[in-house]
Amino acid sequence: MEQEFFPVTRNLFPVSSKATARKALTKQEIGVQGDYITLGQLLKVAGIVGSGGEAKAYLAGTAVQVNGAPEQRRGRKLRPGDVVSVPGQPPIRVVAGGGA
Question: Which of 9, 40, 50, 57 sits 20 to 30 Å CA-CA off 30?
Fold first, then answer.
């Protein structure tokens, strides 16, 4: 069965003014139908890399974390609830069923 992935961006905090809007943090969510998505696939769906080979090189030279632990394997299986931290990007949470 082919898996489908759904990128979803949400604002975590209600925004009531322009000043608050500048301070609000956003978290990206990537939905997965099935049991898991690999780290390489997640990086592609999130638009951080363009291919699996690019993901491998990116992970070798960038301090990516999964649930707070360093990770360099593009084949790392990510399940709903996992959070991926990439320098310069908002955290990415894996969610079930294509986002909520």
Answer: 57
Listed by start position, the domains of the chain span 5-86
Identify the three-state secondary structure at position 47: coil
- Residue 82: name the closest of 25, 47, 35 by CA: 35
pLDDT confidence of residue 14: 41
- What single string gives the DSSP state of each residue in 65-83? EETTEE---TT-EE-TT-E
CATH fold of the domain at 5-86: 3.10.290
Which regions of the chain are under pLDDT 50?
1, 9-25, 99-100
